[in-house]
Design brief:
elongated; alpha+beta; 223 residues
Length: 223
Amino acid sequence: MRHTDRDQPRRGRTVVLVVTALVLLGLGGVAVYGLLTPPRPVNPTLSPPATAPATSTTAASPQPSASPMPGRDPQAFARLVAETLFDWDTNVDTPSAVRDRLLVWADPTGDETNGLVADLGMYLPDPDTWATLRSYATVQTLQIDSVETPSSWPGIVASAAPGSLLPGTSAWTITGVRHREGVAFGQPTSVDRPVSFTMFVTCAPSFPECHLMRLGQPDNPLQ
């Protein structure tokens, strides 16, 4: 079949619409990385823990919201982390701002902080993708369906070498639906996608408040 010049704008428009859908769905694949590096036991005789590594400078405006207080209930804290990780508005947030809100809860000893930074890189859009999402005024939220301890976790704890896990460390698998909405070509657009992942947190007696140690691979939760 012979295509005329009049076909070109229509095909171009189709490509743009497909790209728009991919943007709202989320661009790029998910890399595979380590699930958990057991934290080293805290030695109270050591000097104060190292601070988290420096993060990239963000624009002065808009100002990111502050992190909520972490609390002491592991399950409630896991829910708070999930919401902080997935709930963002490209109109007022930046990837580094979302990351920094989560790093406030990182391992106080600093042992797991670099690993957590790498983990967050698999969950947050890169700056170029974020800019594209912002052009569509994209807002993302997470509908949490369950926050549960994986059935394999008690066995993992029981078989762990002495001192390889801090007391009060627990695993929590989050399942839910990621919802993105935005505006494309002047029309509201929304996309839903199921999500599941496992996080590792440490609370009392190791720390007075709960802290986020690591995040497992996206969409490959601990069973």
